[in-house]
Amino acid sequence: GYGLLRMFSLLQVSGIKYNYWWISISLIGGVLISLVCLRQTDLKALIAYSSVAHMGIVLSGLLTMTYWGLTGSYALMIAHGLCSSGLFCLANISYERVGSRS
């Protein structure tokens, strides 16, 4: 997410006419990865795939190039960082107690 923000200045100049294509691709990718999440049995893989889906939403928010899109992307990146690290910690605790990642 942070790398996307650093590249944002380049996207403002050169990518304005292609933004709707990239937004569509990122949203479709997020939906497809979410469908993959529905079939996961491995808890850590589920968390990792959901991270990819979240970054697709962040990318589409950044590419709207509006105040609300940028603010929402910032908020989602912060929330994602806090929640994903906690979920990985809980998945590890569960694995240590149960002995299975399923």
UniProtKB/TrEMBL annotation:
| EC number per UniProt | 7.1.1.2
- Please give the name of this protein: NADH-ubiquinone oxidoreductase chain 4
Outline what the protein does: Core subunit of the mitochondrial membrane respiratory chain NADH dehydrogenase (Complex I) that is believed to belong to the minimal assembly required for catalysis. Complex I functions in the transfer of electrons from NADH to the respiratory chain. The immediate electron acceptor for the enzyme is believed to be ubiquinone.
What is the catalytic activity of this protein?
a ubiquinone + NADH + 5 H(+)(in) = a ubiquinol + NAD(+) + 4 H(+)(out)
What stretches pass through the bilayer? 20-38, 45-68, 74-95
Q: What's a single GO MF annotation on this record? A: NADH dehydrogenase (ubiquinone) activity
GO cellular component terms, A-Z: mitochondrial membrane
Tell me the membrane topology, using the record's own terms: Multi-pass membrane protein
